[in-house]
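Chain A, query sequence.
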Amino acid sequence: MVPGDGNGFFYLVPWVVFFPLIGLLVNLIFGRRLGEIAVGIVASLAVGLSFVVSVLLAFSLGIVHGPVVAHLADWISVGSLSIPWDFRIDTLSTTMMLVVSGVGTLIHIYAIPYMRRDVRYNSDPGRYPRFFVYFNLFILAMMLLVSADSYLMTFVGWEGVGLCSYLLIGFWYEKGAAGIGNAKAAKKAFVVNRIGDFGFLIAMFLIFWGFGSLQFGTVFSKAGQVAAANPGLVLAITLFLLLGVTGKSAQLPLFVWLPDAMAGPTPVSALIHAATMVTAGVYLVTRSYPIFSLVPAAQSVVAWVGAATAIFAATIALAQTDIKKVLAYSTISQLGFMIAAVGMGAFAAGMFHLVTHAFFKALLFLSAGSVIQGLEEAEHAKLHSDGRHPARKGEKSSGPLPVEASAQGHAVDVQDMRSMGGLRGRMRTTFWVYLIGALAISGVFPLSGFFSKDEILADASRLNPGILVVLLVAAFLTALYMGRQVVMVFFGKPRSEPALNARENPALMTTPLVILAVLAALGGLLNLPGIQTLNRWLAGTIAGLEPGQFILPLALAALAIALLGLWLAWALYRRGYSRMSDPDPLRRILGPVYTGMENRWWVDQAFNLIFVGGYRQLAGIFANPIDLGFIDAVGIGLGSATRAFSGWLRRIQTGFVRSYALMMLLGVVVFLGYLILR
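Chain A, predicted structure.
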């Protein structure tokens, strides 16, 4: 089954997919009888065992150098197209497996107590097993994506994570604005991703046309030959793959779905943003490096799309007030750093930042969930003591509320940072882990983000100085909006009763946060300058990988930029909000620019006007003459004819036995008469 002369644990590779499959099947069939704790343990154990297998596979690669392909079953064989279900075990795939299953396990454990409260807060405890079925399915699809040995098998996992995002973003589908807000967010994610998936599909058609195969080994071995014979084809393949990447990894212009994905429960946000779906695009470009490396024009386009996304999303994050929306735009911006890196050919730097980002972004989202749930509990307790019911999750206030709002009986939006403040002394563990995550993503020494972001900047200084300038500005904005968030949430005085009465969450929720905080702090050890452990590891898969750069003056400049952003945030916001209704300090400074950032530069409105509005107008043009005038008319006509014929037949169904006997007699007479005459 697996090459390697019996060395290593490669025969275990199917279990990276089968363990999550078993977990979801157990909870799907027996979940309602197992109880909530057992459901969470089964789901977490399934992903944890997948992580154990990933560790054994990584260990085995140290014994058997080079990629190993494990054949599980034949799948498609039509003419010259042969697609087996093969697993590709190399240093790139195992890195992704470790990140997906490792961080995914911590998120699953965190979700056990979080969702127990969430399903009760939303008055539907029966959905608890369903959540973990979807969660395990998400891990299964992502593990299938990163372990596949062909573009088509990768696409199966690619579509699987898209389906799971739809199911989990819309988990509370009846909540949100007008009772359909969450359902619309899920539909938006699904539709926008289909645009990117169209690009991936076209790229696969072109790959099979030009290379005669979709297997990675065959395609990559022929890449140079095909590029020399038909450079236009390879350019088209890379650009269509980029379209797929912009959808899945939320880059310009298809990033619009990711902020709305915050409609899902917070563990969903953490899983999507840190370990699964959005990292797929970065992985796809890195996996396809033999093709992209042959097309400098495509590499330049990829790099500039990433750089533009990094700074564009950072400006929007700077003006958001929803704690999760800030982190959502932060993810888009950080993905821009990764896409810019792999676009420039700095594949190890991009993957390094992917790994460290998984640590600190999972930490930040889960810590934000801890804050939200702390405020929800306080709000619930206050309204319950008053004999009233709390607002359902997803029903947001229409605007800023005064601090007296809770006392007047109005529910506070527990995701609005303006309703927070002073949580540093009330949720101490959450504060410290959140601070570590914020400093890490800001690039403060010696935390992990400093090393991974510095490696991208160092490679940019060598490969594309223009992108270096853009990324430095984006790095400053990152520190500024993260400092703003920390100060608004944890410092100052409480600006609402829920913030005043919030308490720390139980250990089952905070323990994964502490583990992630340790990883976010020490993750830079994976690729320290001069040691380059991750670089040397990935060199086993990525041929010609150059050692990572460390330029001390540039690293010090990037650190100074980060500290400047954090200091400016402290100076602006430590006394910026004394009441929820106070205007943002940046609004007074930036004026209309802040309005643009606050309204997300009206990108959603432009999409609705150009694409959604245009589609509706086009549908209106063709609906009456074609859909209603012909297609519906044919269906309605057939129905009317059937109804008329059945009405005529109904007349002979009198219900009288004598009538039926007479008809039988007449039938016999007619039949006998026919025989006699014949």
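Confidence is low (pLDDT under 50) at residues 389-410. The longest strand covers residues 68-78.
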